[in-house]
Amino acid sequence: MASEELASKLQRRLQWEEMEEGGPQPEPRAAPVPEPQPQPPARAPIARADAELSVQLNRRLDINEGAARPRRCKVFHPYSEFPEFSRRLIKDLESMFKLYDAGRDGYIDLMELKLMMEKLGAPQTHLGLKSMIKEVDEDFDGKLSFREFLLIFHKAAAGELQEDSGLMVLAKLSEIDVALEGVKGAKDFFEAKVQALSSASKFEAELKAEQEERKQAEEKRKLRQAAFRELKAAFST
């Protein structure tokens, strides 16, 4: 092993001496050929973006052709979308909606609507219930959101429901007293037309009425507390 290393060193020494004397130059070593690098795969986000764009374009074509309905804004403002309804009426309808929303998921599904109609004394067949939901089901999810629930009463007030339809039966059996809602001379909300009132002034008046009610309730509470303290002091002496 040592002799081989020594021979290698002598060989390199002779080459360097030949180079210094102008002798033949050692052949340069060939540069290593770089190995081909694998091509990176197509980026997944671009593929997903293309797929999403294709879905959106197809939906837009369906909407233009009437095969689909446009989605509504996720934020729902009942007072602005249904200005013909007073704040009190919307709150009453909201309480009614929550009463029958047994699952507490913000929707009334087929079974909950079935129980609702039974409690109102107007049971419906399975097909009848599906037909009721379909008539106001704007997002085709097979259940009623609060907005779609309000749409029932909007259509009933505007005369857009058949007299013998399940939704009209639901609207009539709800027993909404419109005399408290400021509709003059209306014994039945669904026999009266929605009056053209100023939404801004109506909204402001209802806010003031609510504030006055809260103020009176607070004064009564304070009076009860004062009476209780006086009674307690009388027994303490």
Keywords:
EF-hand domain family member D1; 9 helices; mainly alpha; Recoverin, domain 1; 237 residues; calcium ion binding; EF_hand_dom
Please tell me about this protein's structure.
By secondary structure, the chain is mostly helical. Among the domains are: 78-173, EF-hand (Recoverin, domain 1, Orthogonal Bundle); 182-236. It contains 9 helices and no strands. It is elongated. The termini are far apart. The model is unreliable at 177-198 (pLDDT under 50).
In the predicted model, the low-confidence regions spanning at least 5 consecutive residues are 177-198
What radius of gyration results from the CA coordinates? 40 Å
Number of helices: 9
Q: Determine the CATH topology of the domain at 78-173.
A: Recoverin, domain 1
Strand content: under 5%
Shape: elongated
CATH architecture heading of the domain at 78-173: Orthogonal Bundle
Q: Span from first to last CA?
A: 118 Å
Give the topology string: H per helix, E per strand: HHHHHHHHH
Global structural class? mainly alpha
Write down the CATH class of the domain at 78-173.
Mainly Alpha
Mean pLDDT score: 75
Largest sheet: none
Give the helix level as a range of percent: 55-70%
Strands, count: 0
Describe the SSE topology.
Blueprint: H1 2-20, H2 44-64, H3 78-81, H4 87-100, H5 110-119, H6 126-136, H7 146-157, H8 166-173, H9 199-236
InterPro entries: EF-hand-dom_pair, EF_hand_dom, EFHD1/2
Region (Disordered): 1-48
Pfam families: EF-hand_7 (PF13499)
Write a concise synopsis of the structure shown:
The chain is mainly alpha-helical and 237 residues long.
